[in-house]
Each structure stands twice: as structure tokens, then as C-alpha cells.
Design brief:
This protein has about 400 residues and is of the alpha/beta class. It folds into two domains: about 130 residues, Aspartate Aminotransferase, domain 1 (Alpha-Beta Complex), CATH 3.90.1150.10; about 240 residues, 3-Layer(aba) Sandwich (Aspartate Aminotransferase, domain 2). Strands 3-9-8-7-6-4-5 form a seven-stranded mixed β-sheet, sandwiched between helices. Strands 1-2-11 form a three-stranded mixed β-sheet. Strands 10-13-12 form a three-stranded antiparallel β-sheet, with helices on one face. The protein starts with a helix and ends with a helix.
């Protein structure tokens, strides 16, 4: 059948360029020590930055939520699916972020991808909007910008001067500057203070996807805004809940008027079934940990592991860009070499994924090692030794 043959040709082309992706079956809870396809491995591939995904307190809260609210929500939020658990969680997030988002309200979404699509398509739908998108933004932000009925300009990575020129030349009634906070493949931070200053000067919204910062950055785990001491009514803050929070979903925190606008206009929110209330119940337990003494201790341990890797890892031909976050890229170059390095680590009992185009630019295929608070100093030492062994082989 020609339809199937056409797909086969595309799949073969991916394989010829070492771009085929594979799924592995994890048979144990999310944790550094796992069983994958029947084999014990030490993983450096999870975004469970605080090690909460299998925390017994969250598991108990999830079970309690299921007993109290059942399994499914049954409908969208605007029909009958908005439960007391959802309402309480949104109130908790609004209070949690109140020091950094003026007159904050919060809105809970099924996924971070949906939250990003919702914000950009709702704000870009009036036909008079212009989106200014960071060059290295996550795919969900790129797709949100594509789906919005708005002009899109891309500014080079961390290039505030170019962005300011673009904003100054824009005549759009609605301007949106859109950026990751922590860039998911490089681990560096966006220059948010300078971006916010530009947005305030030129009357633009600053949409910040803090997927890899929420729960990890800031003394209280409130993410990049707390870490940098930023607060403004111009900020639309998106926090992902399937990474450091250990559960799933995302929330948007913004001025109350913005949240009401999203409730009324954001199609990914209006036209989808609400998340399971039990998840919202479990996330309240997660928030208790993130903002409490245990969260502080876990963040301190994670930062100690990052410092250990920085001190001990010494590469010669491979390159490790500076990163003070849990995301630690090791740039190798070609797709084939990156796959070979990942396979070598796998053979030594370590799971570190190889990241290739289109996720990263051609010629910058890399290993993406992620550290979590559930790792030990011994785990990091094992990773360092394995990388030194493979690079020197």
C-alpha cells in the first residue's frame, strides 16, 4: 500500500541520519535506581528534580484524593469538572506566587504543553498581536506561537538588544515576549530582569515558562522569579508540575484579569476534560513539601551535587557548557557519536539520553544528564568516572 510505503520511506530516512527515537520500558517507580527492560540502571534522565515523584507522602495524598473525589473529573472545568480540589489548588498556587505576580490568580492545566498553547493562542487571537519568541524556546512555546493568529519574530538567544529593537519597531496592539526561564537542553537562564525591563518600557507581556525552575530555584522553591527577585503585573508565569513537583500538569499565575481572560478565551482550557481531582489533591501535598523545610533540604542537596559535578568533571574533547542548574549538557557533536556515547554509558549501567536534532541544532548532539535530589554523591562520582572512561577510550 503506497500510503504505508511513504511512511516507511520517511522512517528509513530518520534511521539513516541516526535520528530514530526509541522507548524503553521502566518497571519501577521514578527514581535514580530503576529497572529498565529488565535491567538495573542508574538513571540521569529524569526531570524529577526534587525526587518527589515516588515520595510516600504524595502517594498517600493521591490515594486519599481518589477515595474522596473518585478517579476522573467527568467533564471540562466550565461544565461540571471543576472540583473543590482544583479550586483549592489554584488558591494555593496564587498565594504561593503572590509576592512575584501582582494581584495573582492561578489556573491549573493538564500539562505544561497545554498551558503554553492556551496562553499564546488566547492572547494572539485578536489579530492585532505580535509575538517575540526566544530562539531556544521549548517546542510547546514554538507551537503556541505558530497556532496563534499573530505575527511572530524570533530573537537570538539571550539577545536583549535585538529584542528591544524589535519591540521599539512594533506597532502591534498586543505584544508578547515569550521565553523559557531555564533552557531545557543547555541549562542556562534567560536574562529575565532585562527582558522584564524591556516589556515594562514597551508595554508588552512577559510570558515565562519556568518548567525547569519551579520548585528548584529560589529559597522557597518559587522558581526563577523568586531567585531573581522579580515582580510585575506584566508577568504571565507558567509553572510545570510534572518535574520538580513530582506529579503532573501545570499552572499559570498572572494578574487576576489575565486569568479570567484565559478562562473565557483559552481553547485548550475550555475544550478539554479537567484533570483528575486526585492529582490536584496530591499536588497540594507536593506544594507543602516544596515550600517547607524538606524542600529546602532537597534543594540544598541538589545544588551540592551540581557543585560536585562542576568540580570533578574534566572533559578534553567533549564540551560541557556552564550550567548552575540540574540540567547538565555534554555536547559531543555528531548524532552518531552522541548515540555511541549514550550506548557506552548504558553498557556501564548508566542511562543518560542522547539528544539530537531537531531538539538541538545540527552538529550539537549531546548527552543530557539531569541531577536530582534523590541522587547521592556516590551516584555523581560514578557518572563522572564513566564519562572520563568513555571520553578517553
Amino acid at each position: 500500500m503506497e500510503l504505508i510505503a511513504a511512511l516507511d520511506r520517511q522512517l528509513r530516512a530518520l534511521d539513516e541520519h541516526s535520528l530514530t527515537r526509541q522507548r524503553r520500558v521502566v518497571e519501577t517507580p521514578c527514581a535514580p535506581r530503576m529497572v529498565v527492560n529488565g535491567r538495573p540502571l542508574l538513571g540521569f534522565c529524569s526531570n524529577d528534580y526534587l525526587g518527589l515523584a515516588s515520595h510516600p507522602q504524595l502517594a498517600a495524598a493521591l490515594a486519599e484524593g481518589a477515595q474522596r473525589y473518585g478517579v476522573g473529573s467527568g467533564a471540562s472545568h466550565l461544565i461540571s469538572g471543576h472540583s473543590r480540589a482544583h479550586e483549592q489548588l489554584e488558591e494555593r498556587f496564587a498565594a504561593f506566587m503572590a509576592d512575584y505576580v501582582a494581584q495573582a490568580r492561578a489556573l491549573y492545566f493538564c500539562t505544561g504543553y497545554m498551558a503554553n498553547l492556551a496562553v499564546l493562542t488566547a492572547l494572539g487571537a485578536d489579530g492585532e498581536a505580535e509575538i517575540f519568541s526566544e530562539e531556544l524556546n521549548h517546542a510547546s512555546l514554538i507551537d503556541g506561537a505558530r497556532l496563534a493568529r499573530a505575527r511572530v519574530q524570533v530573537y537570538p538567544h539571550a539577545d536583549v538588544a535585538t529584542l528591544r529593537r524589535q519591540l521599539a519597531a512594533s506597532t502591534a496592539a498586543t505584544k508578547l515576549v515569550v521565553t523559557d526561564s531555564v533552557f531545557s537542553m543547555d541549562g542556562d537562564l534567560a536574562p529575565l530582569a532585562a527582558l522584564l525591563a524591556a516589556c515594562e518600557e514597551y508595554g508588552a507581556w512577559l510570558v515565562v515558562d519556568d518548567a525547569h525552575g519551579f520548585g528548584v530555584l529560589g529559597a522557597g522553591g518559587r522558581g526563577v522569579l523568586e531567585a531573581l527577585g522579580l515582580r510585575s503585573p506584566h508577568i504571565v508565569y507558567i509553572g510545570t508540575l510534572g518535574k520538580a513537583a513530582g506529579v503532573g500538569g501545570a499552572f499559570v499565575a498572572a494578574h487576576g484579569t489575565m486569568i479570567e481572560f484565559l478562562i473565557q478565551r483559552a481553547r485548550p482550557y475550555i475544550y478539554t476534560t479537567a484533570p483528575a481531582p486526585a492529582l490536584a489533591h496530591a499536588l497540594q501535598a507536593s506544594l507543602d513539601i516544596i515550600g517547607g523545610p524538606e524542600g529546602q533540604a532537597r534543594r540544598a542537596h541538589l545544588h551540592a551535587l551540581i557543585a560536585q559535578l562542576d568540580e570533578q568533571l574534566r572533559l578534553r574533547s567533549w564540551r560541557r557548557p556552564p550550567s548552575a542548574t540540574a540540567i547538565q549538557p555534554i555536547i559531543i557533536g555528531s548524532n552518531e557519536d552522541a548515540l555511541q556515547a549514550a550506548a557506552g554509558l548504558y553498557g556501564l549501567g548508566l542511562w543518560v539520553p542522547a539528544i539530537r536534532p531537531p531538539t538541538v541544532p545540527p552538529g550539537t548532539a549531546r548527552l543530557r544528564a539531569t541531577l536530582t535530589a534523590a541522587h547521592t554523591h556516590g551516584d555523581v562520582a560514578q557518572l563522572v568516572a564513566a564519562l572520563h572512561e568513555l571520553e578517553g577510550a
